[in-house]
Each structure stands twice: as structure tokens, then as C-alpha cells.
């Protein structure tokens, strides 16, 4: 028997640092990935997909957002999708799960597990699912504890699914909320404990696994966790599962720290470095660059052209922290002509920069912008 394990879809999630166009693309992909998960289940011959909580980002999504994932799962009528509440979409009296049932919006191939009790996965009763159910955002009790004594037929395959923090793993302060015993699988005789809440793949032990979110949703140095699903294959009720991870995410989130620019070659190398993340699909990249350094007037114009304009247009999102400063001197003023109001303004700003003090930073930014605007005007002239 095989299952696909996924979690933390967080349909309806917003990202405050992106523009409206990028936000629409990111939200759409959190729906599109459901199709890739269904295709993976078919490819692997897995009749069941376990979604270990946080299907939705909020407890009160719009009607459209509420129904959209259901319609995506409906398209895979040969796959049974098993959903449990998470801390973002706990089973509250007027929450998402009540609304779905009330509005008859749940397809026949989707099963909502809203009470902690064993559920048969097959007609013969050889495999059973033991769901843990969050009825509020946070609880201090281990909702998987009931699994120890939950009755299933002798020799049956027991699979647990829960959303929370494994005690003894990760941040101990967070583990006080929605705690899960690290040895729950062993205590409850589970062949597998499918977990949600951690957004990257993490294998706690041979039978306890976080699948992570199927579409990456955060930056991390060298690439963030997530963007995968887990396929678990079972040879029997006591054998450890055979696990494999499969990429399902489309977007690549990458943070580059301590990027120091001092020359035109550095600028060109930075653009090449970012594009190399996905050379044939730069539109799948979200890049966060921490930039510093000092550039001359011409190279500062090159930075704006290659990074702030061209690269930004190629990617789904370019997030910049910091910026290269302007290394300008008296000789650079000649670019503005020998006389005139622009030259006079630039001379005054340069004097403020060289004098230092509280106004120097503002003066340098103004001088930088003046040179860039002057360059734009010159390039626009026939």
C-alpha cells in the first residue's frame, strides 16, 4: 500500500512584500500544486492523499477561496483525499469545515476527519487512519495520545495524521502549543505518523515525518525548505515505511546575503548568479538580495539598469535590502556640465556628503538620484 503525505497548503495566504501581480501568481500556484499532488498519487499508484492540516490560511476565507481547493481535488475522482484541521483552520463552530459541510461543498472523494476516531481506509479493514483534530488554534494537550488505545483489528496497518509540534524537536517554546510526543508512533503501534506544521521536510524518526508545504512560501539562505511531498510505501503493519520525497513546487525562493558591489563586473556577476538559479525559467524565481558597496556614477547607473530594471522584470519577485552607495567626487560633476542649476545642486550636495554629519546620508541619496535622473535624461535625448 502507498500513500501521499502533504500538509500546510495554506490556501489564501498573502505575502506583503510582493506586488499585486506576483501575489496573484503565488496564490494561484498554491491551488495549481494540488493538481501536481494528484498526478503524483496516480503515478505512484497511491489511492490516498493525507493532508496533515492547514489546508486554509484563515478560518474565514471568502466563498471562492473556500471552494477552490475542493474543486481541484474533485478532478481526481480516483484518489481519496483525507483532510484534518490545523492551527490556521481549526475546527471551530463556524469555521471552514462547518461551512464546507453546511454548503454541501465537499466532493465524494474528499473525506473531512473532524473527530478523533479510527477510520478504515479500505473495504477489508486492513488499513486504518487515526486523525488528531484541532478544535482551537492552540492546545496544551497532546491530541495524538488517544491513538495509543484506539481500537483497530488485529494485524491492521495503523497510520496517524496530526498537526503540531513534536516535543524535543525544534523550538521548545513552540512545542508547548499543540505538542506531540516524539515516540507517539512507537507508543501507539503506528506504521506511520504523518505530520503537518513544519514547512520543510523533516524525518523525526523512521515512522514520524513532516512532509512540509508543497509550494515553498519563505526565503532561506541557500533555498528554503518545502516544495515537496512524501510518498510512503508499506510492506506490512510492522515494517518501517519506505519513504521518498518528490518535488511539487514551482517557485524557487532564494536569499543572497552580504552581496558587496564595487565594480561593473560585480553587478554583471550578480545578475548572472540570480539567473543561474533557474536559467530557462527566471519567472519562477523569487530573490531577496542584501546589497551593499560603493559604486561610481556609471556603475551605479548600470546597477539600476541591470538589477533594478532588467532583473526585476525577469523574476516573479525581486526583493532588495540595502543598496550600493555612490562613490562620487569632484571629477564626476563634469558629467553635469561646467555650469547651470543641476551642476550647482550637485556641488552643494557633494559638499554636504563630504562634510559628514546627520545630513550626509540624505545628501548622498539625493546626489545618487540626481546623477541617475540626469543619465536618464541624456539617454532619452535623440
TrEMBL record:
Pfam families: Metallophos. Coiled coil: none annotated. It comes from the Bacteria. Keywords: Exonuclease, Hydrolase, Nuclease. InterPro entries: Calcineurin-like_PHP, DNA_Repair-Maintenance_Comp, Metallo-depent_PP-like, Mre11_N, UCP033093_metalloPase. The keyword Nuclease applies. One of its GO terms (molecular function) is exonuclease activity. Residues 1-146 form the Calcineurin-like phosphoesterase domain. The keyword Iron does not apply. This is DNA repair exonuclease. It comes from Acetobacter okinawensis.
Amino acid at each position: 500500500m502507498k500513500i501521499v503525505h502533504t500538509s500546510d497548503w495554506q490556501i489564501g495566504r498573502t505575502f506583503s512584500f510582493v506586488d499585486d501581480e506576483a501575489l496573484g501568481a503565488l496564490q494561484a500556484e498554491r491551488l495549481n500544486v494540488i493538481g501536481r499532488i494528484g498526478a503524483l498519487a496516480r503515478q505512484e499508484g497511491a489511492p490516498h492523499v493525507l493532508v496533515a492540516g492547514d489546508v486554509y490560511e484563515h478560518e474565514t476565507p471568502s466563498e471562492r477561496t473556500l471552494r477552490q481547493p475542493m474543486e481541484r481535488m474533485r478532478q481526481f475522482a480516483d484518489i481519496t483525499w483525507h483532510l484534518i484541521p490545523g492551527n490556521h483552520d481549526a475546527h471551530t463552530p463556524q469555521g471552514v469545515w462547518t461551512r464546507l459541510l453546511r454548503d454541501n461543498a465537499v466532493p465524494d472523494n474528499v473525506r473531512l476527519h473532524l473527530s478523533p476516531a479510527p477510520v478504515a481506509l479500505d473495504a477489508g479493514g486492513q488499513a486504518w487512519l487515526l486523525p488528531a483534530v484541532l478544535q482551537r488554534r492552540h492546545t496544551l494537550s497532546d491530541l495524538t495520545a488517544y491513538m495509543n488505545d484506539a481500537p483497530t483489528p488485529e494485524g491492521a496497518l495503523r497510520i496517524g495524521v496530526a498537526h503540531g509540534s513534536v516535543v524535543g524537536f525544534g523550538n521548545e517554546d513552540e512545542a508547548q502549543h499543540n505538542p506531540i510526543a516524539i515516540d507517539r508512533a512507537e507508543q501507539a503501534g503506528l506504521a506511520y505518523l504523518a505530520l503537518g506544521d513544519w514547512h520543510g521536510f523533516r524525518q523525526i524518526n523512521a515512522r514520524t515525518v513532516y512532509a512540509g508545504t508543497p509550494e515553498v512560501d519563505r526565503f532561506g539562505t541557500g533555498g528554503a525548505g518545502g516544495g515537496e511531498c512524501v510518498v510512503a510505501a508499506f510492506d506490512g503493519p510492522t515494517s518501517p515505511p519506505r519513504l521518498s520525497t518528490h518535488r511539487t513546487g514551482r517557485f524557487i525562493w532564494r536569499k543572497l546575503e552580504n552581496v558587496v558591489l564595487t565594480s561593473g563586473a560585480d553587478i554583471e556577476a550578480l545578475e548572472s548568479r540570480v539567473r543561474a538559479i533557474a536559467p530557462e525559467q527566471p519567472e519562477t524565481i523569487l530573490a531577496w538580495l542584501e546589497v551593499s558597496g560603493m559604486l561610481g556614477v556609471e556603475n551605479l547607473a548600470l546597477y539600476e539598469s541591470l538589477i533594478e530594471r532588467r532583473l526585476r522584470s525577469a523574476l516573479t519577485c525581486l526583493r532588495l535590502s540595502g543598496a550600493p552607495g555612490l562613490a562620487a567626487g569632484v571629477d564626476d560633476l563634469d558629467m553635469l556640465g561646467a555650469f547651470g542649476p543641476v551642476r550647482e545642486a550637485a556641488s552643494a550636495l557633494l559638499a554636504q556628503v563630504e562634510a559628514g554629519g546627520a545630513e550626509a546620508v540624505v545628501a548622498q541619496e539625493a546626489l545618487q538620484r540626481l546623477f541617475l535622473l540626469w543619465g536618464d535624461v541624456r539617454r532619452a535625448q535623440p
